[in-house]
Amino acid sequence: MKLAMIGLGKMGANMVRRLVKDSHEVIAFDVDTNSSTALADELDNVTAVSNLAELIQSLPTPRVVWLMVPHQFVDQSIQSLIEAGLEKGDLVVDGGNSNFNLSKQRATDLHKQGIQFVDSGTSGGVWGLENGYSIMAGGTDEAIALLRPALESLAPAKDKGWGHVGPAGAGHYVKMVHNGIEYGMMQAFAEGFEMLDAKQDMNLDLQQISEIWQHGSVVRSWLLDLMADAFKDDKSLSSLSDYVDDSGEGRWTVQDSIDLGVPTPVLTLALQMRFRSRQDPSFAGKVLNAMRAGFGGHSIRSID
């Protein structure tokens, strides 16, 4: 399969690496042309282009263009692709963390022009290259069938870790809830480790405890693995700030839970605790940042 990838941050570039490893051809574009050129120099089956018109001309029809750009730039990217020559029957994939309502609207707008749209909730962070990505795809059966070879290559296995979860918007909705759950799980670990750290009279070794819990415990998880790695590097997390960002999905989850009348006290409070981290110093904030850096390579504040 030959497709295009727009947006070559850590995750986008690793997705390209996984695709070409499975013999797909990728046309790569990024506003930072050095990123696409470097990737093309690194990998066979990757061609770097310097503009979207060249990208469109380099793809067979129906074209498949995968966007891995911040959600604020999705509409701009789609419009630029249309102006560059995107045609009826072509497919645009939004693999970023967009609001599901906007994804539904984008699918409707593109359908009027005969252009297909898939919203792909994509989880796996910087570890997806090695382990595969968890992909929640929304769109029509026709669009998913066109995209299927790429989805099977990006997932942990052809029949595991990905699925067609519903119509357009469903992929980003499922990923939004996934991230809301993630907030809650991370907050629970953060509070627990803060308690352990505060029990000074016992002189508890947080790295040792995290490694014990990695085996046989009901709380064992990838997040716990990341904590063990973080404590191994810096037992007190002294280099990390406790200021914790949120990238939007947690807010959208809480907002939709209110619209649905579904109680989500844990997810809501986890989001609120991120706001609190920006006011009062806490060890829990450091723990949250260690996990965010570990699974997603998120930019976090360090102590100078």
Task: Describe what you observe in this structure.
It is a single chain. With 304 residues, the chain is an alpha/beta fold. Helices cover 52% and strands 13% of the residues. The protein has 13 helices and eight strands. It has an eight-stranded mixed beta sheet with strand order 3-2-1-4-5-6-7-8, sandwiched between helices. Helix 7 (141-154) links the parallel strand 7 (134-138) and strand 8. Helix 8 crosses helix 11 (249-260), helix 8 (170-198) packs across helix 12 (265-277) and helix 9 runs antiparallel to helix 10 (222-233). The radius of gyration is 21 Å and the shape is globular. The chain starts with a strand and ends in an 8-residue tail after the last helix.
Order of helices and strands: EHEHEHEHEHEHEHEHHHHHH
Question: Total number of helical segments?
Answer: 13
Stretches where pLDDT falls below 50 for ≥5 residues? none
Q: What percentage of amino acids are in beta strands?
A: 5-15%
Q: Helicity level, as a percent range?
A: 40-55%
> What is the arithmetic mean of pLDDT?
93
Topology (elements, then pairings):
Blueprint: E1 2-6, H1 10-21, E2 25-29, H2 33-42, E3 46-48, H3 52-57, E4 64-67, H4 74-84, E5 91-94, H5 100-111, E6 116-123, H6 128-131, E7 134-138, H7 141-154, E8 162-166, H8 170-198, H9 206-213, H10 222-233, H11 249-260, H12 265-277, H13 283-296
Parallel strand pairs: 1-2, 1-4, 2-3, 4-5, 5-6, 7-8
Antiparallel strand pairs: 6-7
Helix pairs in contact: 5-8, 8-11, 8-12, 8-13, 9-10, 10-13
